[in-house]
Write a structure and sequence with these properties.
Distance between the termini: 12 Å
CATH superfamily: Metal-dependent hydrolases
Number of domains: 1
CATH architecture: Alpha-Beta Barrel
Shape: globular
CATH topology: TIM Barrel
Radius of gyration: 18 Å
CATH class: Alpha Beta
Number of strands: 8
Bound molecules: zinc ion
Helix content: 40-55%
Oligomer: single chain
Number of helices: 15
Amino acid sequence: MSQFLRALPKAELHVHLEGSVPAELAVKLAARNGTPLPTSDPARLYRTWAGLADFLVTYEAVCAAIVTPADMAEVAYEAQAQAARLGNVRYREIFFNPTNHPSMTYRQQLEAVLDGLASAETDFGIVGRLIPAINRSQPVSVANDLVREVIAHRRDEVLGIGLDHDDSVGPAPLFAEAFALAARNGLRRTAHAAEAHTPGQITDSLDVLGCDRIDHGYLALADAAITARLRDEGTHVTTCWGTCCAHNPGRSQADQPIVEMTAASLNISINSDDPPMLGTDLGSEFVAAGLAMGWTREQGIAMSLAALDGAWLDDSDRAALRRSFEAEIAAL
Ligand SMILES: [Zn+2]
């Protein structure tokens, strides 16, 4: 079963570019650019985190090590190469934090990331699309400026915007103006919500920010009305098995919030968030989630296809990708 889950073709809707830098590459970039990391030992850089704030210290140090467009392109290429190799990932909508790299303009970063994604698509057949994400711990003016940049440099590969970092720091309503601007310009919207803070972030993300997806959302279960709303409206929630378990170390695998979300008939996908930083990959996430929930082959296949339903693809691209998934699955 583990082999089958790992071999399934996969799509991923919740993964961070800067959280996808292999430790060896992060150490190499920091040395090349003279930026500090908590350690220069790749084996110790990504460790067990004492909560989200602890994790973000290293995440931001890795961001600071990515200084030039060449760095950015290399990171994008390596992130996609690993996903294709380790988890048979075929399609990804990838967050990146342009405002965490002040040495480059948005446009420089965008072109570099697209170069890396295109090379990876040529070499590994994995498609990458982008979601520039607002770092909610930075000032609102920075978020507004970012969305203006995204609009000024529109590319088909940029599907929408996100809102990430610590959801106990930047309440969703602060970013209403940035999200309204994105909406007026045809950008899709999603936000990290109820990962480690209150379930009310989900309501704010839907109603104030106009999101059509929610990232994480584990604390929805603390509020029956919000859980019912997500179910009734079929809102897609991009869950991440390893992250969820990290937030709930006292609960058994079979008792994780994602298990409850599935039992509550929420519309979820399984994603890897920050794979090397969390010691995982999407194949491992499927194996861990599948074994914890006792998936049948059919349930594994359903989860592989669920991400396509939640993806920001147009209907013809979605149908084409689904056909290729179904053909590959039939041959497994
Ligand atoms: Zn995330």
